[in-house]
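Input record (Table S2, row 99):
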Amino acid sequence: MFRETDGESKLFSYPTEEDPCILVRQNSGDLVAYSQVCTHLSCAVVHKEKENVLFCPCHDGYFSVDQGRPFAGPPTRSLPRIKLEQQGNEVFAVGVDIS
Ligand code: FES
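Output record (FE2/S2 (inorganic) cluster complex):
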C-alpha cells in the first residue's frame, strides 16, 4: 500500500472504496493513518507537509499527525485511526480504531 517513493502522505480507501483515508509519514519515519473524513462536517482532511498537521479546509480544522486529535477550529473529536500492519516492504490497513 505504501512505498518509499510515495512521499510524505498517500490517500487510500479503507475498509470500503467509499471510506477515504490518509496515510502520513511522521518526522520519526513511522507511518500513521486516519479516516480522511473530518469529524466536524465530513470534509476531506489533507496533510500540510510543511507544518506536519492534518488540515480541514472547510472551516480551518486542525488535527495532530501523531494522534489525530483536533487542536484548532471547530472539530472536537479525533479522526478515526486506521490500524496498520507491515508485511515485508509493504504496509496494509488491518482495522479501524474509533476510540
Ligand atoms: S468540516 Fe472540517 S472543519 Fe468543518
